[in-house]
């Protein structure tokens, strides 16, 4: 004990005297429910509040109070004391239970709680003996278990609802010596572990344990040496403590446990918040000393010399000593901060660490103590031990605090150790990973670097920031380590970046891409395709073909081919990687179109192919098909040389030769035609783009095809006109002017105008054109003359035959018109005479037969003005119209009605005028049929306004 360090972790809270109201000698005490209860030899029980202030007292027993206990779960007080004997045969000792919440209604000034039960302890079956110890266990309210130890080695137990006297009594026998001083029960202790209930019992000769959960309790002797003094206690871990002059012993269910050699007679033992309390008589000085022991840390937390102690108990978080002279001493524990400050001032950091750990302080408080200890060791330049303390603070102390202290190159080993621990606990940031890897590279510790990065257990993936590790390893030229991290973490973009940009291992990069999943491979090729195309174009194109067509993998079951193709990447997604390599792009797209016929992106693909096909020069500065030798090596930067007269002459192959250009244009024209089949209204490419490409690159064949498919016939002949291809121009007009095939005959008028303005001799072409104009009656002769008169190189002989034929034809038409006029005039004159005759002269009907039945006409008969006669029976209901002439008459009326109806539709009239070769003939026809002259004024005005607005169209 004298080797243990002493500290003042406790302090005196207050001291004083017990209230004067307590006149008897204090024989027992108990605490609970926020108060202290004292039992005196005059039979009184006194209740003290906080600060040991007297609350009230009452007469519990008539003679004296021997033992008492305040229950924890209910506000009951159990006392054992002596009362007046009822008879000589009965004992004066009895047990009482008081309900402190109920007071007896008395007229006196004192307050007396209600005594709810009085039990006689000793009966005929349980003979009287001296009570040496008393203990109450609250099993489950209202059940109690009371153990009463006697000087004859017996323990009387009373169990049940004692307040209602529903109890059972039984006896436990420990020792049975004739000498009562050797068999007296000096201490009891209940041990509750779940459903297990056990009772420790101490005599001067033994320590015993009773198993109370069995039907008949069994006894087990734990030690053959006991104690004669009543200095026993129970720890919060259910250990039984016995004090003997030489030491203090701890007992568990299996026997004696640890022993602490504290000399001196142990008068009182207690347990408070993990501390051992002991009042003992110091043999050297003859004084009584009260010590508080911290057994875990082997130190004396408090020590004070006291007078003779009467009682010791704990309440309100304090230790209370009641001395024989009725003075009191209240001792309380200091707060953790005060205790630590005390230790820090003495540089007792180890003690401080043990203290916070033993008292289960929070992790932050423990880390603060460890930090201060580390700072102390650091100031003494004990860097290894200081780092050991700082490592324990990980998770609570800011890592930068420690890192700053060890940034010196001479302490890089300590810093590396700390950073490793940070990563092991998953608390490292990107900066910590960077610093740790820099430490490894500075130390050239490849083994540690391998262990950190290439750990086979896979935990390394989660211990550090992957991107940071890769970046640091690359900067330090540890490319293999960076690749290992990237591959394990699935960071394919970093893996390829290192392979391509740092190591230039293109073949390996291509193999790695081939091993990736479809979606991931597509992403990586988009990012690094330019580099791969530059150095390995053929292999890259093959990779792209596998990505876009998935040649090696069949569609999943239940998935159609077209649906599967739509799930694959589109070639359009990879166009950006071919920016400087159009030849490779051309090969890729050609292969794709051969392989996939119904791609969802075929319009964009065809547009790109057309742009490549029609380009005048395939600009291919870096690499081309000719730059790849038979083994696939890049010759772009290895120009061929020829030796002439001893000097090296650079030989540059012309990649834009005319033959290649013609081949591309042939493919382009084939694509234009194949991608616009006759059954489709719109082609599988952008028509406007195709026209622009053909215009920009002067591709006449493509333009002609597109214009013809779009029925832009005037643009077609304009192409021939631009190049003055007269033969082709006329041949084209012959093909495109056929109205039966949807052609446009007005093209001949455009050709005539072209040759009329040409300014050179083109008599042969004009004569041929005039043949078709005359055949289809496209233009009147006056217009032909006006058009050709503009060309000074043409003579009258060119059109002499044409004019002669036209004049002859016109003369014939005039003669035909005159004959028709004379015929119509004669018919009109005859009709007028007939009308006049009908109006002025009588008609004589001489028909003898019925027109309908051809039988002899008899009465009744009906005669019509048209000179037809009928039996009345043959007419039926139709008596007002001639059956023979009525259909013809109705047809005339229907024609007249339709003409009148059409006169109300001016749009139809103007449409006929515009579409007719001779608009005047349409107007004349309308006047001739009497349509215009017979319309209303409003309709006539509308026609006149419409005619005026469209006069330019005639």
TrEMBL record:
Which family is it part of?
Belongs to the VPS11 family.
Q: This chain belongs to which protein, by name?
A: Vacuolar protein sorting-associated protein 11 homolog
Where does this protein reside within or beyond the cell? Endomembrane system; Vacuole membrane; Prevacuolar compartment membrane
What processes does the entry annotate via GO biological process terms? Answer: endosome organization; intracellular protein transport; organelle fusion; vacuole organization; vesicle docking involved in exocytosis
Q: Which UniProt keywords apply?
A: Coiled coil, Membrane, Metal-binding, Vacuole, Zinc, Zinc-finger
Q: What does this protein do?
A: Involved in regulating membrane fusion at the tonoplast and the prevacuolar compartment.
Please name the InterPro entries in this protein's record.
CHCR_PEP5_VPS11 (IPR057308), Clathrin_H-chain/VPS_repeat (IPR000547), TPR-like_helical_dom_sf (IPR011990), VPS11 (IPR016528), VPS11_C (IPR024763), WD40/YVTN_repeat-like_dom_sf (IPR015943), WD40_repeat_dom_sf (IPR036322), Znf_RING (IPR001841)
Q: Which GO terms describe its molecular function?
A: protein-macromolecule adaptor activity; zinc ion binding
Tell me how this protein assembles.
Core component of at least two putative endosomal tethering complexes, the homotypic fusion and vacuole protein sorting (HOPS) complex and the class C core vacuole/endosome tethering (CORVET) complex.
Coiled-coil positions: 807-841
Which Pfam families does this entry report, sorted A to Z?
A: TPR_PEP5_VPS11, VPS11_C, VPS11_N, zf-C3H2C3
A GO cellular-component term linked to this record:
CORVET complex
Q: Where are the CHCR repeats?
A: 390-541, 559-764
Q: Does the keyword DNA-binding apply?
A: no
For whether the record's keyword set contains Coiled coil, the answer is: yes
Q: Which residues form the RING-type domain?
A: 850-885
- Topology with regard to the membrane? Peripheral membrane protein
Q: Which PANTHER family match?
A: VACUOLAR PROTEIN SORTING-ASSOCIATED PROTEIN (PTHR23323), VACUOLAR PROTEIN SORTING-ASSOCIATED PROTEIN 11 HOMOLOG (PTHR23323:SF24)
